[in-house]
Amino acid sequence: MLEDFLEQNCLDAEFFSFEDGVSFKKALFEMHTPASSAVKIEFFLANSGEGLLLIFPHNSKPDLQKIKRIAGCESISHASADETLEFAGYEKGFLPPVSIYGVKVFLEKSLQGKEFLFCKVGENDYLKISPDSVAEANEDIKIESFSKPV
């Protein structure tokens, strides 16, 4: 599904599958990707029922007060594994930054200058994609500063 989406939309991205047991850190090394390009992708639900997909640096966490202000909602909560699968169509922990419809996407502004973003999208699958491709492929995207160091 994701590979088809990348190909059909001609995105500046590469999909990689590794053998069992390859760690995220090892995958970064194998793909010649700096750790500063590693991202987390998490799914939240707003009190309005809207899905919020947050893309932010791997060594940070979202500032929920900023997200609420940017999204214009009173409260947000981390989606459960079942909610993530139901709303996003992907398993929690393996969300891609593209190919998820009907949700608001938030891309951390500090990632805009990166050549590529690197994320885990399956048990042994990884995606390397340009921030521009993420912005291009998402209809409802906001590029804002919303994360803070861990």
Describe it.
The chain is of the alpha+beta class. The protein has a single domain, classed as YbaK/aminoacyl-tRNA synthetase-associated domain (YbaK protein, Alpha-Beta Complex). The protein contains 5 helices and 10 strands, in the order H-E-H-E-E-E-H-E-H-E-E-E-H-E-E. A 5-stranded mixed β-sheet has the order 5-2-3-6-9. A 3-stranded antiparallel β-sheet has the order 1-8-7. Strands 4-10 form a two-stranded antiparallel ribbon. The protein is globular and about 40 Å long. The model has no long low-confidence stretch (mean pLDDT 94).
What is the strand content? 25-35%
Strand count: 10
Number of domains: 1
Low-confidence stretches: none
Structural class: alpha+beta
Q: How far apart are the termini? A: 33 Å
Gross morphology: globular
Put simply, the count of helices is 5
Alpha carbon gyration radius: 15 Å
Under CATH, the topology can be stated as: YbaK protein
Fraction in helix:
10-25%
Kindly report the average pLDDT value.
94
